Amino acid sequence: MSGIKFGADSFSTYEEGIKKEWIVGNGLGGYASSTVIGANTRTYHGLLVASPEKSPGRFVLLSSLDEEISINEEVYRLATHKYPDTVFPSGFNYISKFILVPFPLWVYQFGDFTIKKKIFMIHNSNTTCILYNIRSRREGALLRIFPLVNSRNFHYTVRSGELSFTQKTNPAGVKLESSNGCTFSLSSNLSYHSDPKWYYNFEYDIEKKRGLNFQEDNFNPGYFESKLKLGTSHFFIAASTEDVSSLTLEQVEEFYTRETYRQNLLAFNSRLTEPFALKLLRATDPFIVKNPSSGESTVIAGYHWFSDWGRDTMISMPGLLLIPRRFEEAKYILKNFSRHCKRGLIPNAFLALGGEPIYNTVDASLWFIHTVGRYFAYTKDFLFLSDVWDTLEEIIENYRKGTDFGIGMDSDYLIQQGPQLTWMDAKIGEQALTPRAGKACEINALWYNALKTASSLGTHLGKNTSTYETLAAGVASNYENVFWNPETNCLFDLVYKGEEGYEVKDPAIRPNQIFAVALPYAILSPEKEKAIVDRVEKDLLTPFGLRTLSSDNPLYKGHYCGDSVTRDAAYHNGTAWPWLLGAYVKAYRKVHNYSKESLEDMRALLQNFDIHLETAGIGTISELFDGDYPYTPGGCIAQAWSVAEILRAYVEDVLGIKP
Question: Which GO MF terms are attached to this record (predicted)?
Fold first, then answer.
């Protein structure tokens, strides 16, 4: 796969260097992540962030490695840290290159030394490995590497008085046990020397901007050391929740080769060859993980802080797993959610990777049926379809009769639901920022799509699906009358009963209506589909996503920034979301009769992300962007449905590669 490269001009200042972040996953939901200059700017940054056994959530265990080379009176410090009113050391000044291919590689150059440093994780292991290739043109130089460790939930900060460590040294390094029960090891082919001390008052710039705790202390148990020979020396450090004391340099290098091969195999198996598609394909891998407690495959919704969410998983699966042809994993994920279906609802979220599921979502079950349909289109897996058929029936029957959270079919065949159950679910305290209790335009487009999909799938199994066709016809007969707004020539976003019992129709122009055009089964006339796409293009389209609210609306917020209250107010009231472009591209091509011009327009739109892949989360796509120019990225640096829907749209709707 092609790589992403930056030269020294990209790190000319600390402020520029911290704008770019990298992340490497381990297939278990753990990761290694920081900025390209090695300065941690989030509580979520660290070289080993993992879920220790019997610990809820993910913990920062190895925060960073501070390398220094000394010779005579000269000391070259490669680390970069932010402290109150100062940056020290400023090792980013020595970086000449950063390359992501497929894992992060730094080249440091200073004096008579050149250092190449690689970071990767062993797949399905809470193990991070760092490889050093050091070329010295002087004799007598000394290398020291100081690990800064912690043992805290990645959402929070900690101070030295709140945590302590015991350490047991061994010939290869040290085993650390924290006072809160986490155990992990550091090993190396460098010699280890115990010299415990605390480093105080690290500052995390992004957390400071977000109005969160941004200062903490990290523990340094000692240091790894070796004299450098004239010529080239090779070293490694491994950090793990497992016993890595017997690791050798040769084994670590072999692990690197295997991980590189695994990445290349993903590209080969996908059968994709187009360069931009391959870049997006590489970005899919960290999201597909095994739940560490159950061993079941699932999807991480976003890095750094999300776990596995039902809605996000179903929307993401075509791009994350079907386009890359990872059909076995797709099957097991669908089966897992099917097993957890309760009263027709699949889980909204599995909190903390293994906690009890919560079910407060109206659309996840409908997206589940859609995704089963897409899986069958790609695989023709009749046995799987037979296995999950009961779940499809359960979902439709419960939605028809009524289930939890006020979800159920009204007399007009349309689905209504209680508050905060659609994807626009942000709230401050108990105040909903996008109140959508009632009948939502995309939920009923999904309901119609689910009925038609189930009818089609059931036919393949020889089932009597006439009831589904009858229900679908009822939805189609009422949808336009309920949702069409002739004044704006598009759909009302929501229809609900007001305080006095009168019907209220919300004319806010939001992107949810695009699904009435993009889903496989059309519920509106071609003329009205075209009008919707034209309205969305005029009011909501940006180069990196669809705005969640028209900029003409008085509630519109064009920037996603500030503290949590300010950010949440903008989250679904103007902020642009990349994942929505997947539906937009499909709808745009459809209403323009798949013309050559529409193809080139959508190719250009999606290829805007080729630039973005080098500007925020390197090699991946952010959760959201400002609705206003210059469309600054925000939220998670890597979001599953952002990557998935851009890849799916590019492959299916631009390259024309379909099942």
Answer: 4-alpha-glucanotransferase activity; amylo-alpha-1,6-glucosidase activity
Q: How high is the pLDDT of residue 470?
A: 98
Pair type for strands 431-432 and 490-491: unpaired
Distance CA 344, CA 402 (A): 9
For the chain, helix (H) and strand (E) counts, in that order, are: 17, 40
User: How far apart, in whole angstroms, are the C-alpha atoms of residue 467 and residue 464?
Assistant: 8
In 3D space, the residue among 422, 367, 441 whose CA is nearest the CA of residue 645 turns out to be 367
Distance in angstroms (rounded) separating the CA atoms of residues 220 and 210: 28
Here the tokens at position 381 are 């897996």
Give the tokens for residue 322.
């079907």
Measured CA to CA, the distance from residue 429 to residue 158 in angstroms comes to 26
Q: Is the pTM of this model over 0.70?
A: yes
Encoding tokens for residue 104?
Answer: 């992060």
Average pLDDT over residues 51-80: 91
Q: Please, what are the domains in the chain?
A: 4-263 (2.70.98), 271-654 (1.50.10.10)
Q: What is the pLDDT of residues 227-272, one digit of tens each?
A: 999 999 999 999 999 999 999 999 999 999 999 999 999 999 999 9
Cα separation values, 171 from 65, 194, 198, 240, Å: 20, 12, 24, 16
Closest CA to 171 of 224, 111, 230: 224
DSSP state, residue 136 = E
Helices 249-270 and 275-284, axial angle in degrees (round to 10): 120
One DSSP character per residue, 623-642 reads SEE-SSTT--EES-SEEHHH
- Helical ranges in 298-360 per DSSP H: 310-317, 327-339
Residue closest to 219 by CA, chosen among 374, 62, 99: 62
User: Which residue has 């939001």 as its token pair?
Assistant: 510
> How far is residue 332 CA from its own chain's centroid?
20
What's the DSSP call for residue 654?
A: I
DSSP type of residue 162: G
One-letter amino acid at 292 equals: P
Q: Which amino acid appears at position 608 of this protein?
A: N
Question: Locate tokens 């399905």: which residue?
Answer: 124
Q: What is the pLDDT of residue 292?
A: 65
pLDDT of residue 293: 63
User: Token pair for residue 464?
Assistant: 């009597």
